[in-house]
Design a protein that fits this description.
The protein has four helices and four strands, in the order H-E-H-E-H-E-E-H. It is α+β, with helices and mostly antiparallel strands. The longest helix is centred in the middle third of the chain and has 14 residues.
Length: about 100
Amino acid sequence: MIIKGKKNRYLRSQAAVMKPALQVGRDGISENLLNQFEILINKAELIKISLLQNTMVEPQDLIDALNEFDDQVVHIQTIGSKMVFYKKAPKIKNRKYSIELENM
């Protein structure tokens, strides 16, 4: 799934004021990181991930790993070591951004 145009701009603007919810360090892309990512993305829909200086993970490696882990995850933006991902929440009560996207 690819999000373009107004919807992508909206998600980027919302992520601009967010702090990173996850950090990828020297452990790299571990099972623990993927489990934490799944919990956070299902509750928040939009999360920011930071790649720390001591990690060997490249941004594209993380994008590929998260897409393999869950094919509904959409990469929104990468700026330096910060990355933004979106996934529509499975529970209706956790949907905030997806409701706005549907109204665009």
